[in-house]
Amino acid sequence: MVIFSFLVTAALLVYYAAAKNFEAEYKLKSRIDSFVPSKQKTAWEKKNSKSGMKQAMGSLIDKLREYYNSTLPSKNEIELQKRLLQAGNPLNMTTADYYIINTIVRIAVPFLFGAYGILLGLNLFKIILLALIGFLLSFKSLDFYIRGRKNKRYRKALRELPDFLDVLTISVEAGLGFDIALNKTIEKGNGILCSEFYTCLEEMRLGRTRKEALIGVKERLDFSEMISFINSIVQSERLGTGIVQVLRCKSEDERDKRKQRAEETAMKTSIKILFPLLFLIFPSIFIIVIGPAALQLIKAISGIK
């Protein structure tokens, strides 16, 4: 109970410090607003007017964003931004938002674990141990989440790639240019690849070269099949070779690889099912088949004795 009171007091002190820190700013803003007629306020300002608590939280988050943006090394920021793009930019996070969420998680999870220990009536050592476990679990939890989103996105893009290449190849063979064929392929489908290549076309419309835009797709989806496809297109453009033949070869290659992955998955099924058979199904069969005979044998031995 003492620890719980300490945690509540600490939370209140943090809130009080944040409120005092931004009190002068809100007083100044309120005084300025009092001199501005309400009719001169824009519709957006009226729609987005917030309570003092929401303003304080929003201003605190903005201050944290400014702090992380000013202290984060540019190299780390670029690397983190690349990881977020590869994961599909979950929750529309910026690099500063990533560090803010990471900090909140590392504080909140140990606190919740400790509070749970208090509710269970555990002693001080066990409560501290629970809080430590919560901290260890939260330390890399956001990184695991981003990595999981990235791997899931890559698997989905890999499943889409053969069909995407088939439609693109047919469009180019019909006489369309590569950019127009790519646009038609995007219009006829949806998914991760369509979204990424739509971004590629938009970048080309804004002035980037085809090579730079395609390399951007390769950086956002850097699994081996996509890297091979983009490199083939870039090399074909650089050497001036026919892109139709390149697309046809890549399409056939990806269909063969999809078939091989399906066969590999089917071959692994027998191995994966072995463990449920050994530890779940076979024991039940043995109990049903041998159980009655074993009971009769035990009774017979007991009768002899």
Could you characterize what this model shows?
Helix content is 85%, strand content 0%. The chain is an all-alpha fold and 305 residues long. The N and C termini lie far apart (62 Å). The model has no long low-confidence stretch (mean pLDDT 79).
Which terms summarize this structure?
305 residues, single chain, Receptor-associated Protein, 2 domains, 13 helices
Order of helices and strands: HHHHHHHHHHHHH
Low-confidence stretches: none
Largest beta-sheet details: none
Mean pLDDT: 79
Range of strand content = under 5%
Number of domains: 2
Give the % helix: over 70%
The total strand number stands at: 0
How far do the termini sit from each other? Answer: 62 Å
Sum up the overall morphology in one term: flat
Structural class based on helices, strands and sheet pairing: mainly alpha
Radius of gyration: 31 Å
Number of helices: 13
Topology:
Blueprint: H1 2-35, H2 43-47, H3 52-71, H4 74-86, H5 95-119, H6 124-139, H7 141-173, H8 178-188, H9 192-205, H10 210-220, H11 224-239, H12 243-272, H13 274-304
Helix pairs in contact: 1-3, 3-5, 5-6, 7-8, 7-12, 8-9, 9-10, 10-11, 11-12
Can you give me a brief rundown of this structure?
By secondary structure, the chain is mostly helical. It is built from 13 helices and no strands.
